[in-house]
Description:
Elements: H1 4-20, H2 24-51, E1 71-74, E2 79-82, E3 86-92, E4 104-109, E5 112-118, E6 123-129, E7 142-146, E8 149-155, H3 167-176, H4 186-200, H5 203-220
Parallel strand pairs: 1-6
Antiparallel strand pairs: 2-3, 3-8, 4-5, 5-6, 7-8
Helix pairs in contact: 1-2, 4-5
Amino acid sequence: MEKVEDLKEVKEELKSFLSTATRPRVKKLLQDELERVERQISAADKQSSMEVPNETEVEPKKPIARKPQATSTKITSYAWDQSPKFVKIYITLSEVEKLPEENVSSKFTNRSIELRVLGQKGKNYQFQMIHLLHPIVPDSSSVKIKTGKVTILLKKEKEENWSCLTTTENLKMTKQEKKFDESKDPGEGIMDLMRKMYDEGDDEMKRTIAKAWTESREKQNPMETL
C-alpha cells in the first residue's frame, strides 16, 4: 500500500484532471479512480490510528510506593518470679497499653515462648525463649498487658520450684557450682566450698561457717588454743 502522503498527492492530481476533463467516459474513469484512492487513504488513516495510541490517553506509570520495612528488636531485658502454679515473666515496654489488641501476639509450646509486639513508628519487638527448664501447659499460659508492661504467665505442668528459666541457664549454673575439682585434694575442695558459701552467704551463714571453721581448726591443732 502506498504511503498516505503519496495517495493524497494522487488524489489532488485526479481532482485537477477531473476539473479539466470534458468527455463523459474520461470523467467516469477519473471519478472511479478518485473514489478508490480516497478509500485507500481512509483505510490507511484507520490503520495508523490503531497502531499509534493517542498520547493524551496514555497515563504515565506512577512509581510504586514501598512501605519502609519495620525493624525488629529482640527483647533481652526482663524480670521473673514464680508461684506454685505459674512462672511470671515481666517485660517493660513503653506505651504498650496504647497499641491495638491485635498488635500483641504470642505462641506457646510445652517448652518454649514467643512474643511479638508490632509497635509504633515502624519498630517491632520480639521475645523468645526455648528449652524451658520444665514443661508448661500452653493452653493455660497467657499474656497480660498493663501500663508500660507485658506480663507472660507460664502455667507449670507440675507444681515444682524453678531454679532458673531454661535448661541452658541450668547447665551454666551447674558448671559454676561444681563442688570439687578432681585435680585437687578432697580437703582443698571442701575448703573452697566453705569459702564460697561464706562469701555468698548472709550474716547468719557467715557466723555459722566461721564457728564451724574455728572448731575444725581447734580439733586439728589443739595446742594452738593453749
